[in-house]
């Protein structure tokens, strides 16, 4: 099992930086949906099932995106966000 997970990790890390950012951004709508569905007029059991599925997808996209980006990619994203904030604060 560990060997299979390492193979998956290696394949994900071969993907591009852009792909990693896109996958990472896909977690945002799933986080929103996982909590927004609580306002729907459906049974508590169905809400729990939907939350489990949507929250699981959000976490999957989050960890998949981080795996694709790697340490250097995460640093690049953080630096980009910091530079945007600094530019916004100076204007």
Could you characterize what this model shows?
- The chain is mainly α.
- It has one domain.
- The protein contains 4 helices and no strands.
- The chain has helices at residues 2-13, 17-25, 27-36, 44-90.
- It is flat and about 45 Å long.
- The relative contact order is 0.15.
Shape: flat
Please count the beta strands (DSSP E, at least 2 residues each): 0
Please compute the radius of gyration using only Cα atoms.
17 Å
Alpha-beta content class: mainly alpha
Largest sheet: none
Helix content: over 70%
| Low-confidence parts | none
Beta-strand portion reads: under 5%
List the total number of helices: 4
Report the order of strands and helices.
HHHH
Straight-line N-to-C gap: 52 Å
The count of domains is 1
Q: How confident is the prediction overall: mean pLDDT? A: 90
């Amino acid at each position: 099992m560990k060997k299979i997970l390492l193979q998956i990790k290696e394949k994900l890390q071969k993907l591009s930086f852009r792909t990693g950012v896109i996958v990472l951004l896909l977690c945002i709508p799933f986080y929103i949906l996982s909590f927004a569905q609580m306002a729907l007029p459906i049974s508590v059991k169905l809400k729990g099932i939907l939350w489990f599925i949507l929250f699981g997808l959000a976490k999957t996209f989050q960890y998949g995106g981080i795996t694709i980006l790697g340490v250097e990619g995460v640093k690049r994203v953080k630096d980009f966000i910091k530079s945007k904030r600094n530019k916004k604060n100076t204007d």
